[in-house]
C-alpha cells in the first residue's frame, strides 16, 4: 500500500476557503513536496491527513488506514507550522514530554531522547532551556518531537519559513538523512528551492486546487 493516498479530499471552511478535490498518492519512502503560495490550502490538507480537522468530503488513507483513526495517527509525526514550546523547559524535557504524550514506553524513551537530540544536532544543548534556543534550534527540537514515536510518515508544515539560510540547510540535512533511512516525507512549502532540493515528487497547489502533480522535473519543466 502507498504511504499516503487521497481521493477528492475536500475541506471547505464556513467562509468558503480551504482545499478541494485533492487526489494524490505518495509512495513509501518518497519525499513529496506540496508547493504553493501562502493561503493555497497546504496546512488545511496536512491538518486533515494528521486528523486535526475533519474533511468536508472525500477520503484518505495512511498506509492503508483511514485518516483520523488511531492506527493512522500512530504511524505519523507532525511538525506544525507555528509550534509553541514550553520555553521554561529544557530541550530534553520537551522531547520527553512529547514521548509521554505519544505513550512511548519509558525504557524506550530513555534511549531515544538523547539519540534524537543528537540526530537533530542538539546533543550538546539538551540541558539548556528552550528560551535560549535560536529559531533554527527550536525548529530542530520540533523535528525531534515529531520523530519521538518513530513514525513511518513525517508531515512538515513550512519547516523553514522562519529560518535563515543556515537554519534551512540544517533542517534540510536532517530531512535528507530521514529520507535515506526510508522515511516518507510530506513537505509543505512555498519555497520552490526547498522542494527541488529534497523531493522526488510534488504537487503544485493554488487557491485550494492542485494545478500539477508528478515528478519534480515534470512539474517544473511544464511551468
Ligand atoms: P469550520 O468551518 O471548520 O467550522 P470556521 O470557519 O468556523 O471553521 O473557523 C474555525 C476557526 O478558525 C475559528 O476560530 C475561526 O475564527 C478561525 N478562522 C477563521 N478564518 C480563518 C482564517 N482565514 N485563517 C485562520 N483561521 C481562521
Ligand atoms: P497555506 O497553508 O497554504 O498557507 P491554509 O490551508 O492555511 O493555506 O489556508 C487556506 C485558506 O483557508 C486560506 O484562505 C485561509 O485564510 C483559509 N483558512 C485557513 N484556516 C481557516 C479556518 N479555520 N477558517 C476559515 N478559513 C480558514
Automatic annotation (TrEMBL):
Record's keyword terms, sorted: ATP-binding, Nucleotide-binding, Transport
ABC transporter domain location: 4-223
GO molecular function, one term: ATP hydrolysis activity
Family classification: Belongs to the ABC transporter superfamily.
Name of the protein: ABC transporter
Taxonomic path: Bacteria, Bacillati, Bacillota, Bacilli, Bacillales
Residues of the full protein shown: 3 to 225 of 337
Amino acid at each position: 500500500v502507498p504511504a499516503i493516498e487521497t481521493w477528492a479530499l475536500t475541506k471547505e471552511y464556513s467562509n468558503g476557503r480551504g482545499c478541494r478535490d485533492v487526489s494524490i498518492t505518495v509512495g513509501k519512502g518518497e519525499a513529496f513536496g506540496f508547493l504553493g503560495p501562502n493561503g493555497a490550502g497546504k496546512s488545511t490538507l496536512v491538518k486533515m491527513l494528521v486528523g486535526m480537522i475533519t474533511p468536508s468530503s472525500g477520503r484518505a488513507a495512511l498506509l492503508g488506514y483511514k485518516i483520523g483513526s488511531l492506527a493512522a495517527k500512530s504511524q505519523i509525526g507532525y511538525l506544525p507550522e507555528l509550534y509553541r514550546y514550553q520555553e521554561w523547559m529544557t530541550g530534553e524535557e520537551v522531547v520527553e514530554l512529547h514521548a509521554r504524550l505519544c505513550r512511548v514506553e519509558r525504557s524506550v524513551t530513555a534511549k531515544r531522547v538523547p539519540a534524537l537530540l543528537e540526530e537533530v544536532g542538539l546533543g550538546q544543548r539538551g540541558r539548556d532551556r528552550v528560551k535560549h534556543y535560536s529559531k533554527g534550534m527550536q525548529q530542530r527540537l520540533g523535528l525531534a518531537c515529531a520523530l519521538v514515536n518513530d513514525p513511518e510518515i513525517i508531515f512538515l508544515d513550512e519547516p523553514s519559513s522562519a529560518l535563515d539560510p543556515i537554519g534551512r540547510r540544517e533542517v534540510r540535512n536532517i530531512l535528507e538523512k530521514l529520507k535515506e533511512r526510508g522515511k516518507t516525507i510530506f513537505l509543505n512549502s512555498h519555497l520552490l528551492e526547498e522542494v527541488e532540493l529534497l523531493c522526488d515528487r510534488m504537487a503544485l497547489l493554488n487557491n485550494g486546487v492542485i494545478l500539477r502533480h508528478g515528478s519534480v522535473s515534470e512539474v517544473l519543466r511544464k511551468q
